[in-house]
Amino acid sequence: MSKQTLSFQAEVAQLLHLVTHSLYSNKEIFLRELISNASDACDKLRFEALNAPALFEDAPNLEVRVSMDKAARTLTITDNGIGMSQEEAIEHLGTIAKSGTKDFVSKLSGDQKADSQLIGQFGVGFYSGFIVADKITVESRRAGLAASEGVRWVSGGAGDFEVETIERPQRGTSVTLHLREDAADYTSAWKVKGIINKYSDHISLPILMQKEEWKEGEKVEGDESGATKGGEMVTTDEWETVNKANAIWARAKKDITPEQYEEFYKQISHDFEAPLAHTHNRVEGSTEYTQLLYIPAKAPFDLWNRDKKGGLKLYVKRVFIMDDAEALLPTYLRFVKGVVDSADLPLNVSRELLQESRDVKAIREGCTKRVLSMLEDLARNDVAPKAEAGADGVTDVVSEDEKKAAEANAGKYTRFYAEFGAVLKEGMGEDFTNKERLAKLLRFASSTTDGVSVGFAEYKARMKEGQEAIYYITADTLAAAKNSPQLEVFKKKGIEVLLMTDRVDEWALNYLHDFDGTALQSVAKGAVDLGKLQDEAEKKAAEEAAETFKPLLAKLKEALKDKAQDVRVTTRLVDSPACLVVQDHGMSTQLARMLKQAGQTAPETKPVLEVNAEHPLVKKLDGSVHFNDLAHILFDQALLAEGGLPEDPAAYVKRVNALLV
Ligand code: ADP
């Protein structure tokens, strides 16, 4: 292949522009990204070589070398990993394979601060080289190909890149950064070593740099003691390993600093932000493995992509096996990042095999439990304990350290929930074994607390005497839930109702009929049964109303026979004339509406219209010459009040206007 110029995929070109313009406050991360790629390439070679040992050629020791050339102002990262063929170089360095990329790029605004955050969540990998370089040269040969099938890829990071065939005896890749003038100090060995220590110490592969030596300058003329001047550090031909080169997860917890945990997270997740929490354990027993799991602070841009792979890397006895091992955690925990290193699995385990392995099942259960207990810890410490005097008037002494620890964890669960709460809810339908534990982790808005989320346990603890159910309502928005007519009687009686406004709520609640022995009851389903919360007089009044209203109800039913399944008198309303409810086990009108919007078929169930016998409008109905119009208006308004739309909006407007005139 002679030299040819190709264009970057449009999104890459856009991304590159933003990378170079918004990431320079955190320049040095480019080295972490490039070393991470080099390390991945070595991992891939080791894995492929399990079945094809010849791929090692004559260089079985995998390593990364970092070298600098001050005069040429370049920094080169060389690995002897899997390498790239010509097609692979074009494909992998010219396009982004991640799904949702277009979407992501369209969200970038040009505002540096906001963009650098987003880019951090996206992960720019190789392209981060352009933060410090105005030109990058990549030379590579894929393991197993002939020396004559090497490739050189060169780009200035604008719209295009050049590729050509080269002769390359050694396999693997070298990435040479032609540094910008203001990034010249990345040719300093001292500086580069410092960055490697900071970001890449735990890479399980040796990172080598040339040793430097002090070269004495010239003797100072006439100085008896032999002083010299003009000495300098010069690079020698001797290479030394500059990182610890042992896998962080295999080390003892006490030897790992919080910074190292954080850097390892950034390395594997490509996230620029520190994680919210991590857990690191060696599990022994019938299945042995080590887990190092992280909960990110921010949801990735593609969290809602259902095909998104899991975030766990699988190793077997320190040998990398695969990325995105989705078999290791259920889908609803897809936001968790980390590493699992098994002592039992065979090295040549495939994805298919993983699905069937009993060891993997045990690991999956173990990891799930670990994540849930990590979340439980965060939830427990969400509110920092205040030092308050007890009943005996004595205030417990809280040490500064304890206070600090509590404060450090305060608010974390709230942050977690805001990012991932909706995903966690998917677990209600996915993970029956842990349903109870998950239910305890759920939080909702409530009709009696403003802006503060409430869990079922907390709700239960403050239920009214005689209250037999946990009441909730689902709606499209918080405002709609809060102001829903169905809530009126609950407000009047001071009974708390959970307000559920996430799209998955209704679905998730399908799987949860009670919490800790207390039934969950939608206030928009079935007849209101306030049970003991209703006094005798109220019950009697309701029964009487139902009796006297019988003829009117029959007329309403007839007028609305195409719209309502039934019409009845209710005690759940206070200010509103009417509302819609569904039968006990029916699908809520809200869910039915959502399904229809999504183009799916929802069962055609008609709602029940409930009327408030005390309301003047309802009282006026009987004998009105406009009976038919009023009946339809009553129904359509009830629909509007819960965020729905009348089937024939124009007819509704016409009716209202006729009455107004
Ligand atoms: P990511 O690593 O997240 O996939 P990058 O932009 O960093 O994204 O890299 C894109 C692709 O280029 C990688 O997935 C890999 O296939 C290839 N690549 C990058 N660096 C190397 C390398 N040193 N050796 C082999 N392949 C590489």
Q: How would you describe this structure to a colleague?
A:
The chain has 3 domains: 4-218 and 230-241, Heat Shock Protein 90 (2-Layer Sandwich); 249-380, Ribosomal Protein S5, domain 2, CATH 3.30.230; 443-660, Rossmann fold (3-Layer(aba) Sandwich). The chain has a 9-stranded mixed sheet with strand order 1-6-5-4-7-3-2-8-11, covered by helices on one side. Strands 12-13-16-14-15 form a 5-stranded mixed sheet, with helices on both faces. It has a 5-stranded mixed sheet with strand order 17-19-18-21-20. By secondary structure, the protein is of the alpha+beta class. It binds adenosine-5'-diphosphate (ADP). The site of adenosine-5'-diphosphate (ADP) has 15 residues, from α2 and α3.
